[in-house]
Automatic annotation (TrEMBL):
PANTHER family: ALTRONATE OXIDOREDUCTASE-RELATED, MANNITOL-1-PHOSPHATE 5-DEHYDROGENASE. GO terms for biological process: mannitol catabolic process. PROSITE patterns: MANNITOL_DHGENASE. SUPFAM superfamilies: 6-phosphogluconate dehydrogenase C-terminal domain-like (SSF48179), NAD(P)-binding Rossmann-fold domains (SSF51735). This is Mannitol-1-phosphate 5-dehydrogenase. NAD(+) binds at residues 3-14. The keyword Oxidoreductase applies. Residues 203-378 form the Mannitol dehydrogenase C-terminal domain. Belongs to the mannitol dehydrogenase family. Residues 2-196 form the Mannitol dehydrogenase N-terminal domain. Transmembrane segments: none annotated. Keywords: NAD, Oxidoreductase.
Length: 381
């Protein structure tokens, strides 16, 4: 069985690649990082090390690589033969890879017409749907009907913390032991890919929102508040009691929203929150606040981990989401010259001020009451 996976980075190699290998696939990684592609082809295997006291290892073999910039034709042919396509490139890259993916899917229609599922494994709501939309923008009306009939783009939620890392062995990747991969089965075309580790569900929304508004919300709190207090890593930030309190406070706010929306059991959700806080404190992982806080404009988006739970909390409870507002204020002041979105955000704020920029990036209307709540936090600091 053949898998084509776009993005041979942390999640690509450390999570999706390892489950594809265990399920018996040969995985062709597609990336723009030539060094990684060369090593994948040279070594044809890499090591995944679990970040805990035992440091258990898995050697992932049966892998190869293609550079999408220099070998687009090979990528197209790989898509023609694939049994599954997955991605872990980052939400902003999905429109970029859609071009080559469309070419591959078009060629496949000509050659075999076999069904295929394309699963975007990104931290966002509706990642596969977005990729599907980008693909459909590039096809004719007649092709659209054929694409919709044979190509499935089931949405997915993926959860495993894989920090940025530099190892002597370029391909080696250290990952936390925990993982979760949930896929919405309703959009699968043909047979459901038989991959141990995938949980199929009929409605992904509660799962993706619970994950995004707990793991990613809590992580964002630790990253932005931690950075504002001078901490370098998530573990350092999380050892500071006031940050723990704000994190727990923000997760109580997002938790209240999740419990009200989806009827989760209060105590079970509290256990879920505590487990996640424990994962942030894993002493075997060193995760920079700049990785977790990367892309602040995206993270301040209307459907993302901060604005959505905060505005829903305000709407559903009538109370101020103080801890989420503190975090959003810290995200608005987040400076990192290495992060293009952080640089752009600060330039926008310099020109237009916090209020206008918050409206722009979050999509909130001008007089939305939440804007004043964030302004209040900015004034306090
Ligand atoms: N690292 C983590 O803990 C988790 C990350 N995610 C999500 O997984 C996705 C990937 O994240 P990471 O693996 O951490 O990032 P990463 O930066 O380690 O990997 C992304 C890979 O995509 C490649 N890439 C960039 N442009 C490309 C293009 N045009 N074509 C093909 N490949 C391209 C990069 O060279 C890189 O190897 C993101 O959406 C992230 O939110 C989800 C859960 C956990
Ligand atoms: O990958 P993003 O969306 O930039 O955000 C970083 C987040 O992703 C993760 O890497 C995995 O969910 C978390 O560790 C962190 O909350």
């Amino acid at each position: 069985m053949l898998a084509v996976h776009f993005g041979a980075g942390n999640i690509g190699r450390g999570f999706i690649g390892s489950l594809l290998y265990k399920a018996g696939y040969h995985t062709t990684f597609v990336d723009v990082n030539d060094q990684v592609i060369k090593e994948l082809n040279e070594k044809q295997q890499y090591r995944v090390v679990l970040a805990d006291e035992n440091e258990d290892e898995l050697t992932v073999s049966n892998v190869s690589g293609l550079n999408s910039t220099t070998s687009p034709e090979e990528v197209i042919q790989a898509i023609v033969k694939a049994d599954i396509v997955t991605t872990a490139v980052g939400p902003t890259i999905l429109p970029i890879i859609s071009d080559l993916l469309t070419k591959g899917l078009r060629e496949r229609l000509k050659k075999t017409g076999h069904p295929l599922n394309i699963i975007a494994c990104e931290n966002m709501i509706g990642g596969s749907s977005l990729l599907n939309e980008e693909v459909l923008k590039q096809v004719t009306e007649a092709e659209k009907e054929q694409f919709n009939r044979v190509y499935g783009f089931p949405n997915a939620a993926v959860d495993r913390i894989v920090p940025n890392q530099t190892n002597d062995d370029l391909l080696q990747v250290s990952v936390e032991p925990y993982y979760e991969w949930v896929v919405e089965e309703t959009d699968v075309k043909g047979e459901k890919p038989d991959i141990q580790g995938i949980t199929y569900v009929s409605d992904l929304t509660p799962y993706i929102e619970r994950k995004l508004f707990t793991v990613n919300t809590g992580h964002a709190v630790a990253a932005y508040i931690g950075h504002s207090m001078g901490y370098k890593t998530i573990e350092e930030a999380m050892s500071h009691e006031p940050i723990q309190e704000i994190t727990l406070g923000a997760l109580s706010e997002s938790g209240e929203v999740l419990i009200r929306k989806y009827g989760f059991d209060h105590n079970e959700h509290l256990n879920y929150i505590n487990k996640i806080i424990h994962r942030f404190q894993n002493p075997y992982i060193s995760d920079d606040v700049t990785r977790v806080g990367r892309g602040p404009i995206r993270k301040l988006g209307s459907n993302d981990r901060l604005i959505r739970p905060a505005t829903l909390y305000l709407k559903l409870t009538g109370k101020d989401p103080v801890n989420l507002a503190k975090t959003i204020a810290a995200a608005l002041t987040y400076q990192n010259k290495q992060d293009p979105e952080a640089v752009e955000l600060q330039e926008m704020i310099e020109r237009e001020g916090y209020q206008t920029v918050l409206e722009k990036v979050s999509g909130l209307e001008k007089n939305h009451p939440f804007i004043a709540i964030v302004q209040n936090q900015l004034d306090i600091n």
